[in-house]
């Protein structure tokens, strides 16, 4: 075909117009602000402000556009009570009110110690030090919790009781024990309940998912009578590795003592650099791997019916503070870079995830089958999830590759029989890493459902969905 000079000059404009027109080409998934999302199971970590690890003011413009509905905040006894009996909640007021203003609901992680009453910590924030070793410390802790609950009773309903009490770094100076933790819960929970009768108390905040004897003993000692939910932090390089079985075991214990008790994945993240400190620091990371990990962690939780899933953290934490003090290293798990607060690939991936997986998207039972397109090319076992959004089908699939080893994308044949469970009339393919929405190649519709002969399987979630579910 011959094109005139005028036609050639018009090509960029024609291409731009075509890009906005569906279904001829495709489009970019539209993100939503947190205010625009009515409800969601997705939370962002806003921890470590008890240690002043970042400037919250620089994060709010980014958080407002992210689409999350929850933020986990540490309350910081040591930062709030720096003279005995005097409380300055100004810093925490600013955090809570700023988050609420942009459509994000704070939930509190309650801790840590205070050197006025718990001598011994190497850092003023008293990370991990528990106020159980003297009557003065106990009484001071209860007074602090009472003041905290009274102040935030109309703004914060969800309260998590301590952080990772089952490991020594966060349970000092004594050895971690279920008996010690339950002593703390029995001291703390009534102070909140008395002031916030409809409060939701979250127990354990467990490091990992394998301390089942610890969990069992806590329930034997009455945990289920004092808290409404339990939380856990399942750090692992391959997010899906043994996770479904671990979750089943944890749920099994909780439901034996309190049927229907909900689980919250309260803290989990991956670094974006190789020189990070904190969990998973021993593996190879970059910003692309972090973004893929985030999508796999949160979508696995949603697929398995976890009530809330929280990504740790909002921004990289420079000169990270442990219970032993300043580390001199950066914990690079943020979706914003620590040196200039600019978004990483993980920020945009989280935006796209929030755009589709709000409370309007629920797991649904229908058939999704992924087979190898090339008989000579092996297709490993996949992670798959089927959902319904406003009556329309949303199907997720990915290979749970070790992100440090890499994965060659595979072509697959995907079949979907959604029946009456969810409508699938105008199928599209969604890349949650880039936000690209395109028409699938070689779609074939029959009375039973749809088949797509040439779909890429990647090491992060792709979606096949009805256009109405994602537009």
How would you describe this protein?
The protein has about 475 residues and is an alpha/beta fold. The chain contains twelve helices and 21 strands. The chain has helices at about 5-20, 60-65, 75-80, 90-100, 135-150, 180-195, 210-220, 225, 245-255, 285-305, 345-355, 465-470; strands spanning about 25-30, 40-45, 70-75, 105-110, 160, 200-205, 230-235, 260-270, 310, 320, 325, 360-365, 365-370, 385-390, 390-400, 410-415, 425-430, 435-440, 440-445, 450-455, 460-465. The strands form four sheets. An eight-stranded parallel β-barrel has the order 2-3-4-5-6-7-8-9. Strands 1-18-17-21-15-14-12 form a seven-stranded antiparallel β-sheet. A four-stranded antiparallel β-sheet has the order 13-16-20-19, with no helix packed on it. Strand 2 (about 40-45), helix 2 (about 60-65) and strand 3 (about 70-75) form a beta-alpha-beta unit. It starts with a helix and ends with a helix. Mean pLDDT is about 95; it is low at about 1-25.
What's the SSE blueprint?
Elements: H1 5-19, E1 26-28, E2 42-45, H2 60-64, E3 70-74, H3 77-80, H4 90-101, E4 105-110, H5 135-152, E5 158-161, H6 178-193, E6 200-207, H7 212-220, H8 223-226, E7 229-233, H9 243-257, E8 262-268, H10 287-303, E9 308-311, E10 321-322, E11 325-326, H11 345-356, E12 361-363, E13 367-372, E14 383-389, E15 392-398, E16 410-417, E17 427-431, E18 436-438, E19 441-445, E20 450-457, E21 462-466, H12 467-470
User: Which residues form runs of ≥5 with pLDDT under 50?
Assistant: 1-23
Alpha carbon gap, first and last residue: 35 Å
- The level of helicity is 25-40%
Identify the overall geometry.
elongated
Rg from alpha-carbon coordinates:
24 Å
Report the count of strand segments.
21
Structural class: alpha/beta
Spatially, the strands of the biggest sheet line up as: 2-3-4-5-6-7-8-9
């Amino acid at each position: 075909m011959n094109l005139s000079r005028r036609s050639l000059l018009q090509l960029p404009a024609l291409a731009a117009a075509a890009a906005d027109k569906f279904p001829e080409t495709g489009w970019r998934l539209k993100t939503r602000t947190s205010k625009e999302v009515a409800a969601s199971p997705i939370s962002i970590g806003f921890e470590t402000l008890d240690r002043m690890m970042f400037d919250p003011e620089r994060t709010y413009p980014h958080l407002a556009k992210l689409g999350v509905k929850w933020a986990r905040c540490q309350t910081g006894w040591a930062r709030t009570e720096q003279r005995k009996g005097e409380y300055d909640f100004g810093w925490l007021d600013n955090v809570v009110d700023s988050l609420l203003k942009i459509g994000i609901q704070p939930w509190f992680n309650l801790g840590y110690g205070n050197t006025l009453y718990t001598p011994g910590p190497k850092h003023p924030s008293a990370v991990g030090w528990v106020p159980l070793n003297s009557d003065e410390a106990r009484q001071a802790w209860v007074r602090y919790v009472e003041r905290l609950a009274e102040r935030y009773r109309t703004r914060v309903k969800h309260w998590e009781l301590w952080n990772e009490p089952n490991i020594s770094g966060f349970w000092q100076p004594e050895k971690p024990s279920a008996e010690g933790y339950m002593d703390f819960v029995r001291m703390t929970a009534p102070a909140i309940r008395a002031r916030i009768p409809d409060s939701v108390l979250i127990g354990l905040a467990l490091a990992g998912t394998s301390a089942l004897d610890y969990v069992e003993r806590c329930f034997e000692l009455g945990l289920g009578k004092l808290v409404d939910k339990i939380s856990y932090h399942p750090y692992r390089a391959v997010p899906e590795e043994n996770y479904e079985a671990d979750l089943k075991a944890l749920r099994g214990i909780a439901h034996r003592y309190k049927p229907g008790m909900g689980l919250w994945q309260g803290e989990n993240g991956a670094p974006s650099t190789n020189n990070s400190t904190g969990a998973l620091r021993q593996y190879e990371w970059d910003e692309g791997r972090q973004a893929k990990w985030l999508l796999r962690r949160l979508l696995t939780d949603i697929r398995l019916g976890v009530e809330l899933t929280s990504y740790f953290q909002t921004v990289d934490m420079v000169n990270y503070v442990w219970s032993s003090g300043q580390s001199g290293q950066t914990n690079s798990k943020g979706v914003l870079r620590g040196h200039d607060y600019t978004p990483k690939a993980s920020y945009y991936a989280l935006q796209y995830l929030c755009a589709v997986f709000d409370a309007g998207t629920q797991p649904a039972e229908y058939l999704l089958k992924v087979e190898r397109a090339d008989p000579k090319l092996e297709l490993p076992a996949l992670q798959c999830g089927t959902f319904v959004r406003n009556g329309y089908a949303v199907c997720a699939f990915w290979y749970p590759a070790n992100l440090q080893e890499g994965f060659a994308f595979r072509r697959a044949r995907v079949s979907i029989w959604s029946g009456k469970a969810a409508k699938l009339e105008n199928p599209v393919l969604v890349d949650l890493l880039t936000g690209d929405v395109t028409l699938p190649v070689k779609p074939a519709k029959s009375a039973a459902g749809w088949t797509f002969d040439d779909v890429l399987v990647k090491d992060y979630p792709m979606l096949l969905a009805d256009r109405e579910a994602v537009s």
